[in-house]
Each structure stands twice: as C-alpha cells, then as structure tokens.
Amino acid sequence: GAVVSQHPSRVICKSGTSVKIECRSLDFQATTMFWYRQFPKKSLMLMATSNEGSKATYEQGVEKDKFLINHASLTLSTLTVTSAHPEDSSFYICSARSGTRSARGEQFFGPGTRLTVL
Amino acid sequence: KQEVTQIPAALSVPEGENLVLNCSFTDSAIYNLQWFRQDPGKGLTSLLLIQSSQREQTSGRLNASLDKSSGRSTLYIAASQPGDSATYLCAVPPYNFNKFYFGSGTKLNVKP
Fold this sequence. Notes:
The complex is a heterodimer of chains A (118) and B (112).
Chain A: E1 4-7, E2 10-13, E3 19-25, E4 30-38, E5 44-51, E6 57-58, E7 67-73, E8 76-81, E9 90-98, E10 107-109, E11 113-117
Parallel strand pairs in A: 2-11
Antiparallel strand pairs in A: 1-3, 3-8, 4-5, 4-9, 5-6, 7-8, 9-10, 9-11
Chain B: E1 4-7, E2 10-14, E3 19-25, E4 32-38, E5 44-51, E6 56-59, E7 62-67, E8 72-77, E9 86-92, E10 101-102, E11 106-111
Parallel strand pairs in B: 2-11
Antiparallel strand pairs in B: 1-3, 3-8, 4-5, 4-9, 6-7, 7-8, 9-10, 9-11
C-alpha cells in the first residue's frame, strides 16, 4: 500500500511551452501533497505544499505564477511549469501524506519526473 | 530554521562490512525522523520512520536510532551488500508538519 505515481516520468519540451506533471496517490487519500525539486547531486528542495481544495503554500523564492499547483482531489495534485526555460530543467518529485496515517506523519514519494527544457 | 546535516557525504566500503550513517538536526522540536533511500534518477523509498517518542526502529539489516535531545540519528546497516549502494537521506518534519527538511544525503558505494 501507500503508492504514489507520477506522470510523465520524463518530458522534453521547447523553451516557452508549458508542462504539466501529475502526482497521484493510488491506494490512499492524500490530504497534503508536497512538490520538491532536486538538482544534480543535491538534496531535495521543497517548492510548495498543497492541501486538497485550497491554495498551495509556496516556499520563499518559488514563483507562484511560474509553478502552478492544483490539488483538486484527495488523490491528485498537478504541477504546471509555465513558459518553461532551460533553467527549469530538473528532477521534480512529489510526496503525499495520508490523512488516515497522519498519526505517524509518514510521507510517501513518487518516482519523480525528469524535465528537460531545450 | 531547521538545518539537517548528514555525515559523511560519501562512503565506500567492501561488501560485508557493517556501517553507520549519521544525521544531525538543529531543532529538536520534530514530529518524527524518516530515513530514505534514493537510487540514481529515481524517487525516494522510505526505509524507516522513528516517531519523536521512540528511540529506535529496525527493519531487516537496518536499524535507525534517534536521540532527540542531542539532535542526532544514526542509520546502521549490517552486513552491507552491493545492492545497498544508493544515496541515503534523512528528513524531519516539525510538529505542525508544514514542511519536510532534508539532509544533503550520504552516497554509499558497497564494493563486491
């Protein structure tokens, strides 16, 4: 149990286009989802926290208008990178926290999405 | 702001050795501490979760300890195998669980 999927796993796009990444909790309801960005050989950097049905909370320095996050249901959150630039190329990982498992406070991570902007 | 540090940054050992990875954090007001494994180009796999009230957790050849007062956790790997080669990350959320602070990781290489 507690499986989180991401789609797509890899995406290559041209500069100026928008890319949507989906994060799904497959077998549990995720009250909170987190989006991270990871640079090569670096640790994860939290971008934003999203709660179902409410606006995402962005970390300092993360552009809200560039990285649009929608958490429309208890099993799906999306990250849209708008007007992508080569510097947006990175590994994006989502995680989900279960409402029913909240007592343990455990997070479950997706497999990540490799974004390359040409 | 919580700061999480992992030492060493990289470790190379021969197969069969027992080893210890270290994680330290500056703010002891944590909800729990989680150890993860990340293979190259992949997401994170949860290994062990220790609640703030616990002192250790074990799973197979892995044992994680937590000393909240001193801001330290260790991950002990017994009888290491080449398949253990990966980057190991520790992470802590605060009580309000509004974010997750990650260490920079220890890259482990177990040589056959």
